[in-house]
Write the structure tokens for this entry.
Amino acid sequence: MGDMSFYLFEMIRSGHFAIMHQRFIVVFTQILPIFALRSHFSLKGIAQLYSVSFPIYYLTSYLLCGSLFKNDRMALVLLLFLILFSTHSHYWAASELGLGIAGLLVLLAFITRDSDFFRMHPVIDYSIILIGMSCLAFAHPLMLFPISFSLGFFWMANPAFRRRIVVAGSVYILALTIKFVFFKEPYEHGSFGGLKNIVRLFPNYLFLFSNKQFVKHCLGIYLFIPVSSLWILWVYRQNVYKWKRYLFLTFMIGYLLLINISYPYENTQSFYIENLYLVLGVFMAFPIVYDLLPVNTLRNWIFPITGIFFFICFIRIWNDHAFYTSHINWERGLIQQVGNQKVILESRNLPSDSMVFSWSVPYETWFLSTLEQGRTASIAVHDKYETLNVDSVTDPKRFIANWISYKYAVLKPPYFLFKDSISQYQWILK
């Protein structure tokens, strides 16, 4: 779906990693499909290895936290982050924000490890922190918030970690500055356009669609957000937790308002905004694991807690699969209908009740048709026919996507099976 079909397309087309917007963290999930591609696996084999790379990445992160660094609490934070309230985001595995947060938790497990158990030379120790925080600076712009919260949390929790925390925070700020000064990314700059709503919508924040929808979900699929928050605040009412209480409230309220004001409208996809909400899971998981669960019986709590959360998470994900299944089924029907032609669909006529991204339809239908029909469908989507490059439309040996076209010569079998090279694209209004 969406980005994953595009990344798979680009990996197979180029034979290299598909890194977009300088978010290098995706490399960890592309090692297996690149290996499969260079070992001449089938399209199905490459796709399956790409798919399984995501749970492998998170499982590896968990094992690094709990088994290598013997940091059971950080491993449990990772588990809670993944299953606390995630639902729609399950269907958008390629999110760099989720990958970045898992990487952050591994690095924090290293920073807060028991030094007596896992000794390292200071040069190696700080080199790992330098490399890790530099990579996280490029993972996703919103990594600023889970990094700031977690470093602040550990600054308050244990003075023994403060030197490493200062180093980690300083490296992240430096790397982030270098990124914005020397590696400007137009896509990320455009993503911050929603911040203008803070001024434009002031002071009418309360009744935004995004806020009303979030409150509605808090009575359903996001029930663990208010329940966990109230539990945390009940424990944090004690004066000993005063600064942690302020930290928790500031980040929970501030971040939630930032996202809902930046994306206030009804047309924001559920999986997209939920992916941004996942940062809230970090704000809740740290207090739950480090301050609410009994210290001496943590291991006894891991299985029942995660078992309950996982079961409920599974039910949520299963109940909400219909939208994503209908999208794939619509594309299968489209391939059956026009798969033998080269067609361009008008984006405004696409089915809104089952449409994920219109820009990814060419890549998704490429994958489905090649895998299931034994021929590659040439189906493009555009807003206006007039904006298309005439040479691309009339060239019978080109594959058109939304912002680029590819010559058949660079799209090699058996991953691209074109049988329509004698016709040009036809515009379909309906």
